[in-house]
Write a structure and sequence with these properties.
The protein is mostly helical and 350 residues long. The protein has a domain of 238 residues. The chain has a two-stranded antiparallel ribbon. Strands 2-3 form a two-stranded antiparallel sheet. Strand 2 and strand 3 form a beta hairpin. Helix 3 crosses helix 8 and helix 4 crosses helix 10. The longest helix has 27 residues. The two termini are 14 Å apart.
Length: 350
């Protein structure tokens, strides 16, 4: 039984998975993810892809909110920037997915850095309102599409879904599963290692106490903008992948409700945790799907029950946030940690 954390080398201390139970769980998860698409139907593949896209965006928001302590209610707007940038490049310039997505990420990072400028002077509620303003500005531009040459919606040509000769459009859900999974793994690895670096430690110092961080030499202007840009980069990645995966995008997919949804994901999953962002994305994606399936099952017994589904989903959404804030503010990741500790220490749990 593990009774402490003991390392005999610096490499061992820096390892992401230093103990064999962690490595065993990781191998099991990898095996499940690799086997899943070969046995899952189209519905479950679409659900898995939706979770993957949500997890990438949630990881980006967690960099800003969970690790740096900068409140943002504009994440949906940055998703829209990534989606529309990739869509316009694909529709007007004919760029394939492997070119349009990276360009969309860089453009979104630049936009995020611009809207992150107020963070140098603002914090807390004032910063939240400033980020909400960014959300509304972006949505206003999209609803006045004649300014950038788009209409109510934007269609992405199927021929642009070509990844180094592989036609992703031929088997959309199955093919995109591997692309989304690869991007999610790379994002999770990047975020995990980011906070073991100088910049990541500066982010955490700003979150804990920005004045103290400045006293010890952390450049608040530089690192706050970097946090906004990095967070927006991954929002752009999720938005660009969403555009190519869905084939058609509309501004209605990126409203302020979307921003609140992603905030709920990282709150329920666990702020300042890579796995927590993924758990929260899975929970908030599966919850509406579960309620929808229950509604279909109950419609045969209670006619008209399906008409109340939108209200039930909104109620369950709010109830989940309230219950987690009251009963477990550290989120699903803390529940999982408690469960692991129980079995690790049993029968000497005291």
């Amino acid at each position: 039984m593990q009774s402490g954390t003991f390392h005999s080398s610096y490499a061992g201390d820096m390892a992401l998975r230093p103990y064999w139970p962690m490595r065993l769980r990781l191998i099991l998860v990898i095996a499940i993810l690799l086997l899943f698409p070969w046995f899952a139907g189209r519905y479950w593949l679409n659900l898995a892809n939706t979770i993957g896209l949500a997890a990438i965006a949630a990881l980006g928001l967690n960099i800003l909110v969970g690790y740096t302590g900068q409140i943002s209610i504009g994440h949906g707007g940055f998703l829209a920037v990534g989606a529309y940038t990739a869509g316009l490049l694909a529709a007007n310039a004919g760029l394939p997915i492997w070119l349009s997505v990276p360009v969309a990420c860089v453009v979104t990072a630049a936009v995020g850095a611009i809207f992150g400028l107020p963070s140098v002077r603002l914090k807390g509620l004032y910063l939240a309102i400033a980020s909400l303003a960014a959300q509304e500005i972006i949505i206003w531009v999209l609803t006045h599409g004649e300014l950038i040459g788009i209409g109510e919606s934007l269609s992405i040509p199927a021929k642009t879904n070509n990844l180094f000769g592989l036609d992703l459009a031929s088997n959309n859900d199955f093919s995109f599963y591997w692309v989304i999974l690869g991007c999610l793994v790379l994002t999770a690895l990047f975020v995990s290692n980011l906070f073991r670096s100088r910049a990541g430690r500066a982010f955490v110092a700003i979150r804990d106490q920005d004045i103290a961080a400045q006293v010890i030499g952390v450049d608040l202007f530089r690192y706050k903008l970097l946090a906004f840009a990095t967070s927006s980069f991954f929002a752009g990645l999720a938005g660009a992948l969403t555009a190519h995966y869905r084939g058609i995008i509309s501004w209605e997919r990126f409203t302020v409700e979307t921003s609140i949804l992603y905030l709920a994901m990282i709150i329920i999953g666990g702020l300042g945790s890579v796995s927590g962002a993924i758990y929260g994305a899975a929970f908030m994606t599966l919850l509406p799907a579960l309620l929808s399936n229950l509604s279909r099952a109950a419609s045969g017994v209670v006619p008209g029950f399906a008409g109340y589904l939108p209200y039930i989903q909104q109620g369950a959404f709010g109830l989940a946030i309230v219950l987690f804030l009251i009963l477990e503010p550290e989120g699903i990741v803390k529940l999982w940690r408690n469960l692991k500790d129980y079995f690790r220490l049993w029968p000497f749990s005291y």
